[in-house]
Amino acid sequence: MTNRKLKRYLASVQVPEYSPQGLQETIARAGEIQFFPEKQRMTNLQFFRDQLRFIGKGFWGMKFIFTGIFLYLILSGSAEPDSWIMTAAAISGPIVFMADANILCDIFWKGMLELQMTAKHSLRKVLICRMLVSGIADFLILACAASAFTLAKGIYLRQTLLYMVVPYNLMCFGCLAALNRRTEENTMLYCMTWGILLTFAIILSKSAGIPLFEVRYTGNWLFFGGTSALGAIWEMKRLLKFGSVK
């Protein structure tokens, strides 16, 4: 039945007669068309914009919710060294990075890594783009929170940033190390576990009466901050090196 319908359709098609003049006109018009494939390729800016669309609304939602909660704590709490508001400032880093870990772990989800390795844009490029987006967002959040804390409570800005950035660096180091293990569906679980351990370590230290936020412990904060920053840079280089392999 299908073949008969197809034959009837082909028989009804009127094929125009060969015309040398028409052929020459077609060739002339084809020569006027300027098509440059390299101009049709996606630019880096377009690629960056597309990656923003792939980052889910949950990422931005977590950022805004955290910012609102922390600003509320700043305005309602005391800023004494033994107050809980300082502990909240310290655990802000791991909480902020949790959303970053989610968008990075998505790339290494089961089946996604193979797909990314065969895509036109390298895995390294995708990683750099997502790290850049999350890094800029985190910097703005922590900087704004620290500035608001300084203006509202009169604490030195560098001191507030130190208490926020050091746990953030530790969280970053642990999650990047987990990503380098490339255990697919377990990577996010490892990141969450590391973040919970850091958070509970800070809270338990506060509950045990350890004066973490006194000036005499500044050297310890600087040591752990510098060590974790170097570790995070090392793990980032390893991850990007893996991403550049096609």
Brief summary:
Helices cover 77% and strands 0% of the residues.
Write the layout of secondary structure elements.
Blueprint: H1 2-12, H2 20-32, H3 37-40, H4 44-54, H5 57-76, H6 84-105, H7 112-117, H8 123-153, H9 157-181, H10 187-207, H11 218-243
Helix pairs in contact: 5-6, 5-8, 6-8, 6-9, 6-10, 8-9, 8-11, 9-10, 9-11
Helix percent reads: over 70%
Radius of gyration: 28 Å
The helix-and-strand class reads: mainly alpha
- Sheet bearing the most strands, described? none
In total, how many domains does the architecture comprise? 1
> How would you spell out the order of helices and strands?
HHHHHHHHHHH
Q: What is the overall pLDDT average?
A: 76
Strand content is under 5%
The number of strands is: 0
Low-confidence stretches: none
Tally of helical segments: 11
The rounded distance between the terminal residues' Cα atoms is: 49 Å
Describe, in plain words, how this protein is organized in 3D.
- The chain crosses the membrane at residues 59-78, 84-105, 126-149, 161-180, 187-205, 217-236.
- Keywords: Membrane, Transmembrane, Transmembrane helix.
- This protein is an all-alpha fold and 246 residues long.
- It has one domain.
- 77% of the residues lie in helices and 0% in strands.
- The protein contains 11 helices and no strands.
- It has helices spanning 2-12, 20-32, 37-40, 44-54, 57-76, 84-105, 112-117, 123-153, 157-181, 187-207, 218-243.
- The mean pLDDT is 76.
